[in-house]
Amino acid sequence: MHWRVFALFSLINNAVMLSQTSRKLSASRDLSEVCKGCLECSGDNGCLKCPEKLFLFIHREGMRHHGSCLHACPAGYYGVRGQDINRCIKCKTPDCERCFSKDFCMKCKEGFQLFKGKCLTSCPEGTIPHLMDCIEGCVLSEWSEWSSCSHNGLSCGHRWGVQTRSRELSRTGPEEPSVCPALSETQNCRLRKRCPGEKRKNERKNGKKKGKRQRTLQSNSTVTEPPWGT
Predict the structure, then answer these.
(1) Which one, of 85, 89, 73, lies nearest residue 49 by Cα?
(2) What pLDDT digit, counting tens, does each position of 118-153 carry?
């Protein structure tokens, strides 16, 4: 009877020891993942110190702050190198995706335009949007009046023609003109299908044809004298 109790106690004790060992191994594996790449690490807060070339990135996880060692800072952060540690610092502007310093943005989030390190909803006066930036150098005059309507140099005789207008460009910056707005516009316009004087000319032609036809009929007709004579 005693040996059975002893055997049962041994089995329970071994199971407890195996469970504790399994938990320790699991905790050890979890800690190794948490502390991957760290020089100093905490099981609760992750990396506390990183190797010389890596950046310490601290972010919030619930109620705790968690540290990671990264080769490059994530979007919305910029890297600052120090004597003891390199850190990832958050950009001050929430609309900035990548910044050079706390107040100078290098790339804005979608829907914003970048101008001199700031993220704007629209480009300021004197600049135009190009991709996700506002560029200077395209100062434009007002549009000219529309030109007269013509078709191959003719102002009549066709149903449709074209007319154009233009404006001038004064470049003040180093940008290429190809990114500036269009300097000319063209639109279709209606023309007089019949030119002035064309109707009278046609009428004269038709009149001549009619007179000639009448003379031809008269020359072909035969006059019959009445049988009783005069």
Answers:
(1) 85
(2) 999 999 877 888 888 988 777 778 889 999 998 888
Q: What local confidence, expressed as pLDDT, does residue 200 receive?
A: 56
Distances (CA, A) of 209 to 62, 108, 200, 217, 219: 101, 79, 14, 12, 15
| Whole-angstrom distance, CA of residue 11 vs CA of residue 5 | 10
Q: Work out the number of other CB atoms within 10 angstroms of the CB of residue 159.
A: 9
Cα–Cα distance for residue pair 79/84, rounded to 1 Å: 14
**189-211 tens-digit pLDDT:** 988 888 877 665 555 555 555 55
Dihedral sign from CA coordinates of 131, 132, 133, 134? positive
What domains can be seen in the chain, in order of their start residue? 32-90 (2.10.220.10)
